[in-house]
Amino acid sequence: MAKKDVPPRWDRKMQQRLARGEAAALGELYDRFASLVHGLAHRVLGDERAADGITREVFVHVWEHPDAYDPRQGPLRTWVATLTHRLAVQRLRATETAALAREGSGTLEELENRVRRASVAARADYIVQSMPVPLRSALERAYFQRRDYRQTATDLGITEDEARRRLRLGLQLLSTAHDSEAPGAPPGYRGAV
Asked: Of 24, 33, 110, 181, which sees the most CB atoms within 10 A?
């Protein structure tokens, strides 16, 4: 196995600990990923209680099926995010379909558009959370503080060329939110399905 194909050590060890049924491993995993899971679920569903439910479902699934994660397919973080995304989208489709049937207003096309928008927004959030701090800092200044690349360079103490590079790379990463099956997943990664 090539060096870059080796999954991170923490991911492999965590999977092994979960497979042995170590409750402490689940607690450690929860501490590390609960805010990610809840945030993604909330972004898709727009409902605190539903996001809490998805968070529970994700960690129950991980506890009951630790072997479903294949470290060779990508990081554990990506697998957990993919699982969260899948479960949240399923819940959104189910609740929106039920509301559509109950109320009779709207179409299936409108439902799918709402699901698609929520899904893309969740992927974009995941990408921003996962990107290196220097890229995220540049994007946050440009977007939230309405700073141009020159002001961003000054704020961060970097050259203007470096500020432009960070902004360009950050935006390129964000543009993939429309393309991925799941948040941050490598092409073809189906680890949480």
From this structure: 33
Residues, the chain, total?
Answer: 193
CA distance linking residue 57 with residue 64, whole number of Å:
10
Give the distance, in angstroms, between the CA of residue 9 and the centroid of all CA atoms in the same chain.
Answer: 21
Per-10-residue mean pLDDT, the chain, length 193: 58 92 94 94 92 96 94 88 92 84 76 82 82 88 88 93 92 78 45 39
> In the chain, where are the structural domains located?
9-130, 132-180
Q: What token pair was written down for 104?
A: 């009779």
Helices (H), 46-182: 48-64, 76-103, 108-130, 133-144, 149-156, 160-175
Q: Between the CA of residue 159 and those of 135, 151, 166, 172, what are the distances in Å?
A: 14, 10, 11, 20
Burial of 25 (0-12, 13-18, 19+ CB in 10 A): buried
Tell me the CATH architecture of domain 9-130.
Orthogonal Bundle (1.10)
The phi and psi torsions of 44 (rounded to 5 degrees) equal: -75, -45
